[in-house]
Design goal:
The protein has 2 domains: about 160 residues, no CATH class; about 110 residues. The chain is built from 12 helices and 2 strands, in the order H-H-H-H-H-E-H-H-E-H-H-H-H-H. The protein has a two-stranded antiparallel ribbon. It catalyses: Random hydrolysis of (1->6)-alpha-D-mannosidic linkages in unbranched (1->6)-mannans. Its main location: membrane.
Length: about 375
Amino acid sequence: NINDAASIKTAAASVAKNLLTYYTGTQPGQTPGILPGPPPAGDYYWWEAGAMWNTLIDYWRATGDATYNDLVAQGILFQIGPGDNFMPPNQTASLGNDDQGIWGMAALAAAETGLSNPSDDPRSQWLVLARNVFDDLAARWDDSDSADQCGGGLRWQIAAANQGYDYKNSMSTGTLFNLAVRLARLTGNATYYGEWAERTWGWMETVGFLDKETGAIYDGAHVQNNCSDVNRARFSYVLGTFVQGAANMYNATDAGAAWRDRLSTLVNGTDVFTGDDCVPVESACEAEGTCTTDMRAFKGILLRGLAVSAAQAPFTAGRLGCVLEGAATAVAASCDDAGDEGARCGFVWTEGRDDGARGAGEQMNALAALAA
């Protein structure tokens, strides 16, 4: 019953319990903090575990159930790396800016919600970790006039040898934007971080990744073409990341009118990710059945952003409330009960039934819907 808080809390607890069945980091010989992978060793790339810990922080915030807090802290800390910036040596060869940014957002969520800092060591405080990631991403920004830099933005990959280094993408830039806005609020340094928020947003519009008329956010483009070959694929987690940031910016700044307009435009962009009865869909791949394991975790990140917007910018609550309610209602129909292992949830929510798909991403989406 989505209108009963106790019922939602019980359902969320069951979904969270099953989500942790995919996590093997506490087992002998396994690496703490990550999901099994990357392919072909397992199904999951490194970023998805960062998103999982963030989802469990959201679950604690929404329900007050601290069952997994120690596990969350242990998992995040094991992946910070020697630079305290989420660049662990066993991941750096394939690390993307968006991957690092997603882990940084998880650390920032821990700071915002008051998750106990792990020790007296100032280097491992949640806020410090999030700042370190922001500093790394900001240092990789290049707004030179060179024709192969696109006037700014972040490349997808960090290492020059990696496929994708020549591609600037919206999610990498989105994590920088998201961190900038939230750090401005949490630290009180609105001037420095606020300038970065304005810079990233302005670049997204200028380069054509963000359509300021429709709210569409496109995936990215190649530097060798000066970002003129925009890939118009749209993914829900990118929009959710920008919505979360824009809602915080609207709530925290005197420039409310400008950010109200920007946020309103993004909210318009949610239409492509909703089906009948306001139920979320991953429109780039869901109908065709081509969603990868990564893509199966995107809707939860969208829902996080929409929930933040409804709370931080109440003028969006009417429209987004339909999506949040539609998601929770659909999840109730898409999950079964696996008994001691908790409720297992499907991926496609528009059919009013459990489609039988199973994975950590599906569980994260469902948990996000119930925690929103």
